[in-house]
Amino acid sequence: MSGEISVKICGLTAPDHVRAAVEAGARYLGFNFFPKSPRYVTAEQAAVLMQSVPVGVAKVALVVNASNEVLDQITETVPFDMLQLHGGESIKRVSEIKSRYGLPVMKVIGVADAEDLDAIDAFSDVADQILIDAKPPKNAVLPGGNGLAFDWRLMAGRKYWRKPWMLAGGLTPDNVAEAIRTTGARQVDVASGVESAPGIKDEALISAFIDATR
Ligand SMILES: O=C(O)c1ccccc1NCC(=O)[C@H](O)[C@H](O)COP(=O)(O)O
């Protein structure tokens, strides 16, 4: 693994912000297919947004408990490199999705306390990557993208898992360096921390975030 931290900018909705993320050095771009999200895009919009994304930058489809019908439509319309499963998908469902679509799968594990980290091992048999995110508050409309961090100290000394993993949840240009130091993360993911308003990415914040990981 190179010394550089890999950054995923998630919930892109505008061509200028896709370009800004690529130019700043993002390694993954996330497109959100959860209809209630302020970052929601249709498959047709995502196809246009990613037209100029260079090879080497992974295009990730974020879905929440998606049916095969929804996944069929997304994957037939857009050449994604990875599927991010951000709902309550079971180990069996993750495995089904992986074999049906032949794409690498990143399973999201929500963390509020130390026991939540046990799910990382359980899903490591089937997922290609793990995204360790803050567990959403009870009754939250969004299962992710809430700008909330969990206690990173829960991960101190726990940085070795069987699959590559990414840290998310409440990361910002101001705290991402500390999050990396505390958790040992080599990959980080951000949505609201690089926005000027919900769903509106900010080019200067994207650039500042990626700079702060270096
Ligand atoms: O961003 C959303 O609106 C969203 C909706 C439904 C499921 C997941 C969602 N976002 C997940 C992410 O991509 C985020 O990177 C991750 O949860 C961290 O979000 P944030 O704390 O806002 O950086």
Automatic annotation (TrEMBL):
Record pathway: Amino-acid biosynthesis; L-tryptophan biosynthesis; L-tryptophan from chorismate: step 3/5
- Cited Pfam families: PRAI
Q: What is its EC number?
A: 5.3.1.24
* InterPro entries with a match to the protein in the record: Aldolase_TIM, PRAI_dom, RibuloseP-bd_barrel, TrpF_fam
Offer one example of a GO biological process linked to this entry.
Answer: L-tryptophan biosynthetic process
According to the UniProt entry, where is the signal peptide?
Answer: none
Which Gene3D superfamilies is this protein grouped with?
A: Aldolase class I
Q: Which reactions does this protein catalyse?
A: N-(5-phospho-beta-D-ribosyl)anthranilate = 1-(2-carboxyphenylamino)-1-deoxy-D-ribulose 5-phosphate
Task: Extract the CDD domains matched here.
Answer: PRAI
* Keywords, alphabetical: Amino-acid biosynthesis, Aromatic amino acid biosynthesis, Isomerase, Tryptophan biosynthesis
Q: Which residues form the N-(5'phosphoribosyl) anthranilate isomerase (PRAI) domain?
A: 7-211
Enzyme category, top tier: isomerase
Gene Ontology MF, one: phosphoribosylanthranilate isomerase activity
For whether the record's keyword set contains Amino-acid biosynthesis, the answer is yes
Family as reported in the entry's similarity comment = Belongs to the TrpF family.
The name of this protein is N-(5'-phosphoribosyl)anthranilate isomerase
Gene name, per UniProt, is trpF
